[in-house]
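call fold target=Endonuclease/exonuclease/phosphatase domain-containing protein
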Amino acid sequence: METKSNSVRVEELLVKLGFSGKLVVDLIGRSGGLYLLWSHNVVVDLVLYSQYHIDVKVQSLCDNVWRLTGFYGDPVSSQRCHSWTLLRRLACMSPLPWVVIGDFNEIVYYDVKKGGVPRDWRNIASFREALNDCSLVDLG
């Protein structure tokens, strides 16, 4: 059975959804991988990327400039402290208005947890502290 490569799937997604640009951080083994897709009415400049994030400067047609970071928190809870360190470093990199989106692999409040393995309240507190240090607000 032949499987499609990651880059072919991204190209198909780009066309299917009508986007004109893309940035891809490839899979490592069978996990990870980040995609950022955008439309023709913005200019996107890559600032920095890693296995866990893509950081770009975005300029709209009306010349608004802001920063977008697609973020993936480490799936291993004992390693998430490294994710929060990365988030704090990214926060210091630019004075532009900043939006961070993605999967942090952590929750902000324990009461939103539904089923599954219980979360350690210290990890939740550490995540909230990182968001606070970066002046980020959970939009829900």
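return ok
Helices lie at 6-17, 80-91, 121-133. Residues 40-133 form one domain.
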